[in-house]
Input
Amino acid sequence: MHWLATAATLVFVVPVQGAQNDPRLETLFAELANAETPEDAAPIEQTIWKIWLLSGNGAVDANMLRGLQALEVSDNEAALEHFTRVIEALPDFAEGWNKRATVNYLLGRFDASVIDIQKTLTLEPRHFGALSGMALINLSLDREREALKAFEAAMRVHPYLPGAETHIRELREKIRGKGI
Output
């Protein structure tokens, strides 16, 4: 019984790291994979995003916030600048790469977006947002097979990823119809 109390105490003294290395993510991803409904998955997803967004570095987090604010008002060039600063300051911070990938996608810079997504996935292979982004880029480029693979990979991590199931169904029908 004593070891249980000690183990429980250790769990609570683990510092909250934020970003893709936060120790809470293991449990959250297990819960996400086992969610029974989209309603069960939604708060888990929100918690994962909150963790991913925090680097633990005040200056980096301030640039992340400025980038997000620029995105909200469709100031994509300013957002790109802020997310690039995030990456330059913390190159191992997956969400910085993911956010810049999003802006590059919005700007139609698919090659740059793919490079940023690949870096995101190197740092956080479970990043369902990056996987979904890769799928959307492939859809935009009429690469149905690649889009399908990326959506399927995203759904293996997040079984209730909004829109992914519909895309998968449509892509499978389209691919089947082409005989691919």
Observations:
- The chain has ten helices and no strands.
- The two ends are 59 Å apart (CA to CA).
- Residues 1-15 have pLDDT under 50 and may be disordered.
- Residues 114 and 134 are 7 Å apart (CA to CA).
